[in-house]
Amino acid sequence: MGENVFLNIASWIRGFLDSLGAPLLLNDLIMMIIKASAVIVFVSLNVIWLILMERKVCAYIQCRLGPNRVGPKGTLQTIADVIKLVTKEFLVPRTADKVVFLLAPLIVFVPPALALAVVPWGDGMAAVDMNIGVFYLLAVTSLSTLIFWMGAWGSNNKYALIGGMRVVAQMVSYELPLVLALLGVIMITGTLNMSEIVEAQRNVWFIFTQPLAFLIYFIAGISETNRTPFDLVEAESEIIAGPYTEYSGMGWAMFMLTEYVSVMIISIMCTVMFFGGWLAPFGWTFLPSWFWFFFKVYLFIFLFMWIRWTYPRIRVDQLMGFGWKVLVPLSLANIFVTGIGMYVYRAIGW
Amino acid sequence: MLSDWGAVLIFLVVGLGVGIGGVVANVLLCPRRKFAQKYETYECGVETIGPTWVQFKTGYFLYALLFVIFDVETIYLYPWAVKFQSLGLFAFIEMIIFIFILIIGLWYAWKEGALEWK
Prior knowledge:
The complex is a heterodimer of chains A (350) and B (118). Chain A is mainly alpha-helical and 350 residues long.
């Protein structure tokens, strides 16, 4: 039921374009612009909902009601906030490096937008079905570090500088376990295409064969998105807002947008690599594949929020020590165990 | 046919459009009231002392060095992992030796205190 809704819309638009008799390349181009806009607009608007969800989850965890004034039960709160942010004065500090300072919010959304290109939203619903999908996604998301650093350095503000240094140190350190953890899955599937990885989980989800890799990936993912308990980068109580201290209005909103989209991308990767992507659990295929995909992604986003409002922030030495002395050796060990395990598995001929 | 990288380029342009669109809308809509103190560097109300762009703690630099070594390693590991099942035991043992050499490096850095936050 509803399985092919989006595929039918796409093929209907495609058929309409082909009937106009324009060159094939132009039609491909228009189709891809429509797909890219659909994905990016959906994800950006979804952030409005995610922020409301975050505030509500936080409120209920702390026995409060959360936003409940604007709209029914506060559902329009974030829209009001966005309107307010758009009409705020866009300040550029006098001493800032103006080019770098202004460039950072303009391009900060590009790495997550690029990463969204290869995501399989449902059965056959990846915008670009790239053969090196996982590798590409890891490559483009790691570019974010540089852009946060641009904002921090360009601000010419001491809080921003400390925050920026922490961004680079933290994101760079936790990128290693993040990347190494996925190797176990790649070794089992022998492909980097995200749709094929999902397809390879028909019999058993990789959470059952790679539990350690999932744990490492999830912890490193929380750290990569700079969320509590690893949010030293924007630790409000000590360095105001870290790299975003000097940004106001939409400049700041762009960084927030990127943070929430990054959370979504990490959740998407957990779903695709370990929880069977758009495959239905228990064979419940009466609901469409894209429903299951979003259901799992939202469960992970909820887990992110749950962790954020449950644990306190850890110290910077604990953070770096945990990354380098625990997660990196463990993720390397996971590669060995997976390799040896696969040979044993083959030797038994199970 | 539009190639994969052409499609990626379109995603890049649309992603850039979101950033530029948001900031331009902000600049067009926002009020402007010139006020000298407003453009000062924010520091909880006091004036900032000394330059911000200074030489910073070397601890960060050590992590960056270690990161470069291990990040290059992952570039070698990914193609190997994709072909793991067809390359056989020999390649697996070779990769164990390769990682082992890097683990010695990590152990050395650990012993020398590069992983300690001081």
